[in-house]
Each structure stands twice: as structure tokens, then as C-alpha cells.
Write a structure and sequence with these properties.
CATH class of the largest domain: Alpha Beta
Helix content: 25-40%
Structural class: alpha/beta
Radius of gyration: 24 Å
Distance between the termini: 61 Å
Number of domains: 3
């Protein structure tokens, strides 16, 4: 606790963070790697805080010495989800530049749009990403330097070196001196995290050191971690939840096991083999693990399950909470494992609300919980007036984690705020004890026959069906006007059911006005997950857009 308090009250920012972490935790293990760090001079299967600080210093100094990086300059990091991804982000910020993390799943046009939008002249990538997408640097307009991270073969090096490409491995090898971090203000931009672009072109949320650190420092201080804990994560570090959860672990001195790409079967075996005590994931990861009959795996070491990024099904939480123990005494389970859910978004630099599920105390399915310290919230109607208790409206938040705005997009920035309050785009309501309850994404509310159908509510209801693994409810245009709800589901392994059976189960368990008019069963592999493992509703809407065009039930109004 003393070390956590030292971090909490230190003059830490995103430029000097790795130095302060090294001063605090030294040779303590920071991360254990499922796939080792692969550089000629840096082949590691685990990293201490001192080693992280040394690597970040070398990369930072190489950027300044070789490319004359200036304070405030934007640098894109676009590579596979390996541990050096976050180390490079830290190094960019240490050099006083603004880190722009991009998921390597993004394609050429998407990357080029972001390059143009943020004006980056330096792109840091890796062998696979550049070979698959950008063999010719002329296809990256505006970029003057491309830096290849990781180990590359001699043929690749010979082909690309000297054509605007540089090898990070060589630069690290040539760097031996310590260079102090560039001084930055807490309110200077430190990173730009781009939204997924599900409602138009992606927007770059500008996040300062204050924004990136305030919520994560508070979470590190209040979450019930122990010195003996080992956390697991396979989240993409290019997205805010992955970055923020890694930051919380580092600030807390919590060792982590890092997997590059999530695999449910491998993960369950790692939990058993490594005695993982904290699992950090998103609902899709939990759903995939639950499909594998988790009762067959030894998960007794788990103390805390942590989730964010989407609403978590109550049945899934109950099943998982029975698998471990938060507290044991003389080997006997005293308190079962707990489940912590976080609500947040990229524009809030991570979590804003936390909800804790304890044995014998289960918050409501749609509860967001309570805000982190220094976070304020309110619910407003279409006119901007606060709604009465229990009435749905848009959730607005004030927080030191709030973005400074969208980079190079004044109109979107102005639309994001209302008199200093950040508009989340989420519908919520306030409970009796000032607890907040999620209703739905404003854009996912289905308007049908004069009713407002909240898709999240219907999804939670359908997930109570014992054979359903995942569910998405979408609004599809109807021949009689407006939209009608359609449910797309996947089935648990070894389960057998039909669309007909699920439809009639829904009719028996869900109010008629919001009951899906049709069920579509698809294979797990067909469910379109994005880079953050959220389901892409837009793709499903496109796939099933004609489903209600010529249905007799529409004509009959049934």
C-alpha cells in the first residue's frame, strides 16, 4: 500500500511514467510473456520494471537522435499486439511526442485516413503489417519515415532498408546512453486514440497525461489487489481498455501474464497452469470460454474476474463467480471469487464507473455501478434538462479523464460536449440510491409501432435461454414502415435447438411489443467481432436488411 500511495501522490505523467515505476518497483516482475520479446538484443520471456524503463529509454532516445522528433509531433504505432506495442507507446510519449496507436487489423485506406487526419510523418510498424499492407511506402502519403519493430529476416532488411525504412532493432543496439524524458505538462496531449468509425470516419480522441492517469491511478488505489496476484490479459493494447488495464496493473505493481492473441482453450489451460488470480477480459471472451464447459477446467485460483467494453450477462457472471475464491483460510474457501464490471469509453480514457458483484450480493443486470472518484454524472432529456429518478435519458459525464476533443474535427468536438459535460451517447436512468442503470446505446434503440425497444434489455432476456451463447438484437426495416427487432444468436457447444424453438421461447418470456419477430442462428465463426471483440451490429444489419421486406406477418401486423 505504501508503494501505491507513493505512485498516487508522485508527479507522474506519461513522459516520466516508466522511470517512476522503475524507482518504485525496481526488479519486481512487471509482465510474463506468452510469446517472448523478439529483438536481437532483447530476447525476453519476462520483463521487470527496471527492464521496461531501460527499453523505453532506448527507443525514445533513438527516435530523438535519428528522426529529430519534436514535442507534440504525432507518431503512429501500427503493429501486431505484442508487448513491445505498449513499450513503443511509452517511448513516443517519453520523447514528448503524441502516440497514435492503431490496431494492425486496419487496412490501407483506414490507416491512410488516420495518417492524413493526424498529420503523422513517422509510422512504427512490424514485418507482417508492412509486408501484408504497405510494401511500397509511396502508398503512405505524408509519411516520411517507416520504422520496423521486432526481428526481420535478412531478405526483408535488404529489400526495404534505405527506401524510407529503418529497423528499430538496429537503433536500439546503437543506443546505450540514458536520456531524461522530455518535460510535458499534465494537460499536454499525450496520445490520440481513434474511435472504431462505426458511425462514419474514425475520430481521434485527444487524451492528455491527466486524462490517461487520473482514472487509472484511482482504480489502482481502490481495487483489491494483493502482492501475490497474477493477472491475465489478451486485450489489444491499441484500444483504450487494453491500454488502460495494463496501465492500472503497472501502477499497482501487479505482475501480468500477457497473451498476444486470445484463444479460449489455451487461456483456460494457462489459468490452471500459471495459477492466474485475476482475469481481465470483455464479454465476448467470457462467452467463448463458457462454451467450452469450464467446469472441466481448474479455475480455483481466480480471485477476481474483470470485464469492460460491453454489458455482461448475469448468468455468465453467476457461473464464473462459482469457479474461484476471493478469500481462502487454511485452504478453505471463505468468500467466492468476485466479478468487477467497468463502464467507460475512449473519450473518457478508460473506466468511469465500477460495479462489484459479491457472493450473496448481485447488482442488477443493467447497473453501471457508481462513478470513480472525481467523476460526476447526470441524465438529461432531449432538451438538456435533468430527468426524474427512474426516467431514461442520455448519460452525461464530467471527469478528469475526459478527452480534450477530437483531433482536427471541431464540429464533432462541439457535438461531443454540452456546457462542459461529455455526451456519452448512452441511454441510462438513475436509481433510488444514485446508482446508474444502462438502458441502451442511443443509436441502437429500435423504434417499432410507436414503441422504443431497448436492444440491450432484449439481449439480456434472450441470453437466459440455457442453450444460447451470444445474442445480438438489431432493428431491420419493415415493409409496413419503421423497424422490427431481429435476434441473431450463437448456440453453446454440444447444444441442439432450432430458430423455431427459440422464437416461441421468446414469445413466452418477453413482452410481445419487444419480442424479436424472427431468430437467426449463425455459427460462432460468423459473428462479426471487431478489434475490441465487440459485435459489429452494422454488419449484421446489412446481412439481414431484407429479412422483413415481404413477410406476411408484417402485412398482418403480427
Amino acid at each position: 500500500m505504501i508503494k501505491k500511495l507513493k505512485i498516487f501522490f508522485s508527479k507522474i505523467n506519461m513522459s516520466n511514467i516508466t522511470d517512476i515505476l522503475a524507482d518504485t518497483y525496481g526488479d519486481g516482475t512487471a509482465v510474463i510473456l506468452d510469446k517472448g520479446l523478439k529483438y536481437k538484443s532483447l530476447e525476453k520471456d519476462a520483463l521487470t520494471y527496471n527492464e521496461i524503463a531501460a527499453i523505453v529509454n532506448k527507443i525514445s532516445k533513438a527516435l530523438i537522435d535519428n528522426f529529430k522528433v519534436e514535442k507534440g509531433e504525432r507518431i503512429i504505432v501500427y503493429k501486431s499486439n505484442e508487448i513491445d506495442f505498449i513499450l513503443i507507446l511509452f517511448a513516443v510519449m517519453r520523447a514528448g511526442a503524441v502516440a497514435v496507436p492503431l490496431n494492425s487489423l486496419l487496412k490501407e485506406d483506414e490507416v491512410n485516413y488516420i495518417i492524413s487526419n493526424c498529420g503523422a510523418k513517422i509510422l512504427i510498424t512490424d514485418h507482417d503489417s508492412i509486408k501484408n499492407n504497405f510494401k511500397d511506402n509511396s502508398r503512405l502519403p505524408g509519411v516520411e519515415h517507416i520504422i520496423i519493430a521486432g526481428v526481420v529476416d535478412d531478405a526483408f532488411a535488404a529489400e526495404y532498408t534505405g527506401k524510407g525504412f529503418s529497423l528499430l532493432d538496429d537503433m536500439i543496439n546503437a543506443t546505450h546512453e540514458y536520456a531524461a524524458p522530455v518535460e510535458i505538462n499534465m494537460d499536454d496531449p499525450a496520445a490520440i486514440f481513434y474511435t472504431s468509425g462505426t458511425t462514419g470516419e474514425p475520430k481521434g480522441a485527444v487524451l492528455t497525461s491527466r486524462a490517461l492517469l487520473s482514472g487509472q491511478k484511482a482504480a489502482a488505489l481502490i481495487l483489491p489487489f494483493r502482492k501475490s496476484d497474477l493477472a491475465f490479459t489478451a486485450l489489444p493494447q491499441a484500444h483504450i481498455m487494453g491500454f488502460a488495464s495494463t496501465l492500472v496493473a503497472l501502477l499497482n505493481g501487479l505482475p501480468g501474464y500477457f497473451m498476444n492473441d486470445f484463444n479460449s482453450k489455451k487461456t483456460l489451460n494457462i489459468i490452471k497452469r500459471k495459477r492466474i488470480t485475476i482475469f481481465i477480459g470483455v464479454p465476448a471472451m467470457y462467452a467463448m470460454m463458457l462454451q467450452r464447459n469450464i467446469e472441466k477446467y481448474d479455475l480455483s485460483s481466480i480471485r477476481i474476474w474483470f470485464s469492460s467494453g460491453d454489458s455482461m450477462n448475469a448468468g455468465h457472471i453467476k457461473t464464473l463467480a462459482g469457479q474461484g475464491a476471493f478469500l481462502r483460510l487454511f485452504g478453505k474457501k471463505i468468500i467466492g471469487s468476485i466479478f468487477i464490471s467497468a463502464y467507460g469509453m475512449v473519450e473518457l480514457a478508460g473506466a468511469a464507473f465500477l460495479k462489484v458483484h459479491l457472493p450473496g450480493f448481485q447488482p442488477s443486470d443493467n447497473s453501471l455501478g457508481y462513478p470513480l472518484p472525481s467523476t460526476r454524472s447526470k441524465i438529461v432529456d432531449n432538451q438538456g434538462n435533468e430527468t426524474p429518478e427512474g426516467e431514461a435519458g442520455e448519460l452525461l459525464i464530467k471527469s478528469p479523464g475526459a478527452t480534450a476533443g477530437y483531433f482536427n474535427n471541431t464540429e464533432a468536438t462541439n457535438n461531443l460536449f454540452a456546457e462542459g459535460w461529455l455526451k456519452t451517447g448512452d441511454m441510462a436512468r438513475k436509481g433510488e440510491f444514485k446508482e446508474m442503470f444502462f438502458v441502451d446505446r442511443e443509436k441502437d434503440v429500435i423504434k417499432a409501432a410507436g414503441y422504443s425497444i431497448f436492444s440491450a434489455e432484449v439481449e439480456d432476456a434472450i441470453l437466459r435461454h440455457p442453450k444460447i451463447a451470444s445474442c445480438v438484437v438489431i432493428g431491420i426495416p419493415s415493409a409496413i414502415g419503421g423497424n422490427q427487432p431481429l435476434a441473431v444468436v450463437t448456440i453453446k457447444n454440444e447444444a441442439s435447438t432450432t430458430e423455431h424453438e427459440i422464437y416461441f421461447w421468446c414469445k413466452d418470456n418477453i413482452a410481445a411489443y419487444k419480442c424479436p419477430r424472427e431468430i437467426k442462428i449463425i455459427h460462432e465463426d460468423e459473428m462479426p467481432y471487431g478489434a475490441t471483440m465487440k459485435i459489429k451490429k452494422r454488419e449484421l444489419k446489412e446481412r439481414f436488411k431484407n429479412e422483413f421486406s415481404f413477410k406476411w406477418m408484417d402485412v398482418l401486423g403480427s
